[in-house]
Amino acid sequence: MTPYPSLPSSHNGLKAFEVAARLMSFTLAADELNVTQSAISRQIKQLEDELNASLIIRKHRAIELTVQGHDLYVALRESYGNIESVIASWSEPKQKRIVIKATLSFATRVLISKVRELNERYPDYEIVIVPVIEEDEAINSSEYDLLIFHTRFKKRYDNAPDITFLREEFMAPVCSTNLTHSASSTNKDTDLDSILTMPRLHPTLDHHDWKVWLADVEFPPKKPVRNTSFLSLDMALSACLSGEGVTVTDLLLVLQDLQRGFLYCPKNAKIQNSAWTYFIHQRTHSPVINDLIDWLKIETEKEIELLKALSHQNHWSGVICDQQ
After folding, report:
1. Is the domain of 140 the same as that of 58?
2. Where is the HTH lysR-type domain (predicted)?
3. Is 177 in the same domain as 290?
4. What distance lies between CA 311 and its chain's CA centroid?
5. pLDDT for 213-271, tens place per residue?
6. Residue 186 has pLDDT above 50, yes or no
7. Is 221 exposed, middle or buried (0-12, 13-18, 19+ CB in 10 A)?
8. Residue 257 belongs to a domain with what CATH number?
9. How many structural domains does the chain have?
10. Taking the chain, what is the end-to-end CA distance rounded to the nearest angstrom?
11. pLDDT average, residue stretch 9-37
């Protein structure tokens, strides 16, 4: 059984009617379809007979649509327009894309700030940035050209095919500069000890980043402090920027905020590596993607050098100062 039982058996009559109704002339319709005027009139009459409906009122030198004719013309105009758009799209050149998937914090804190540079570097491509949360699961998908992920299983990916090491994490406590101004109203300087007595913000329930960082502090504070967990580094950093407390984070993710004075890392703070490492997985092999990987590595090296300079200015110590 046909799914369109009301449609006429021949579509020639529909096409002849659509052209005649659009141009409101049998003569012009015949010219457009390259047939005779009598052929147009005959096809439309056959259509009316098959539909058992009057579509056109024939006058001496003009035609007029009936109510049913007008309704049918509107439906045909929309349908033919949609079909034309679909078929025309087949011949349109598809815009090339570079799809970059990245761990959520890297996508929002690093890649977004590089969109203009990416567009200028690859003007013939649309840049698509997709944040991911489960990076180890994302690496098994196929919907990207490049995946920037961080993992605690460094040995699993060292020397693995299509995997490129990007960088370590450089962890230290940071807080809003506005929060330090408030604390400085009673203290001449907001030193490390003062920072460590402020409320602590955590991106995980296990408070892992803080525990690891405090384990290497020579004299950790003994006074209890308020803890708030967000289950997301981006939320913890947003709360930090809002002046809600202090969080331990990867300084390269907040490098611009440190440079602009929005965030503060106390003088003499110690910078540590975390258990997490950033890697790049290359799924698409092409000169453009090879160039993108090289560019990301160069950009990362520049950021590390900027962090070294800030470390020198603020007397930070630890792993960043030990790198050559």
Report:
1. no
2. 12-66
3. no
4. 32
5. 888 876 666 778 899 999 888 899 999 999 999 999 999 999 999 999 999 998 888 99
6. no
7. middle
8. 3.40.190.10
9. 3
10. 77
11. 91
- CA 200, 205, 207 angle in degrees (round to 5)? 50
Task: Answer yes or no: do 48 and 76 share one domain.
Answer: yes
Decide if 30 contacts 17 (C-beta within 8 A). no
Cα–Cα distance measured from residue 275 to residue 125, given in angstroms and rounded to the nearest whole number:
35
99-119: burial string, b at 16+ Cβ within 10 Å, e else? bbbbbebbbbbbbeebeeebe
Which structure tokens are listed for 245?
A: 């407390």
Range of the domain at 34: 11-90
pLDDT in tens, 41-95: 999 999 999 999 999 998 877 889 999 999 999 999 999 999 998 888 787 667 7
Nearest-angstrom CA–CA distance, 55 and 66: 5
Q: In what order do the strands lie in the sheet with 263-264?
A: 227-229, 200-202, 246-250, 171-176, 263-264
Taking the C-alpha atoms of residue 111 and residue 104, their distance in angstroms, rounded to an integer, is 10
